[in-house]
């Protein structure tokens, strides 16, 4: 059996869908806390507070979408599509880390996740078969 078809790849991909979904739910329910993942908690001013909250909702929906997209692809047996989505998720982690680096620190909180999920995506796509 090719490694891309193994049960462990499916389980790991499902778990990889949980992570962005959980972060997304956190953004919707606790935008102030979620903002801390970017180390921006001290940047809020009273006039900007509503805008920042709205942007965190958009960010949360984006994260939930990423996780659900992985799950839907896996549910319908589209492992290559799930692999492509996981690679895209890794690109989002790189972008998020870059924003943190531009702010001065915290980039590795995001960059550490990117190679793992990208590698899993490549395996799910059958690169190692």
From TrEMBL:
Q: Organism classification, top ranks?
A: Eukaryota, Fungi, Dikarya, Ascomycota, Pezizomycotina
Instruction: Give the organism, scientific name.
Output: Emericellopsis cladophorae
Give me the segments passing through the membrane: 12-31, 51-74, 81-99, 111-128
Q: Which UniProt keywords apply?
A: Membrane, Transmembrane, Transmembrane helix
What is the designated name of this protein?
Uncharacterized protein
Q: Which Pfam families match?
A: DUF4267
Q: Which InterPro entries match?
A: DUF4267
């Amino acid at each position: 059996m090719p490694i891309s078809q193994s049960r462990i790849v499916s389980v790991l991909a499902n778990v990889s869908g949980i992570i962005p979904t959980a972060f997304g739910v956190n953004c919707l329910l606790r935008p102030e806390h979620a903002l801390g993942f970017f180390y921006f908690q001290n940047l809020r001013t009273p006039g900007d507070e509503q805008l920042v909250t709205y942007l965190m909702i958009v960010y949360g929906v984006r994260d939930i979408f990423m996780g659900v997209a992985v799950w839907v692809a896996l549910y319908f047996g589209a492992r290559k599509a799930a692999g492509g989505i996981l690679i895209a998720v890794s690109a989002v982690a790189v972008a998020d880390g870059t924003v943190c680096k531009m702010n001065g620190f915290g980039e590795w909180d995001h960059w550490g996740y990117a190679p793992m999920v990208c590698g899993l995506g490549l395996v799910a796509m059958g690169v190692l078969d």
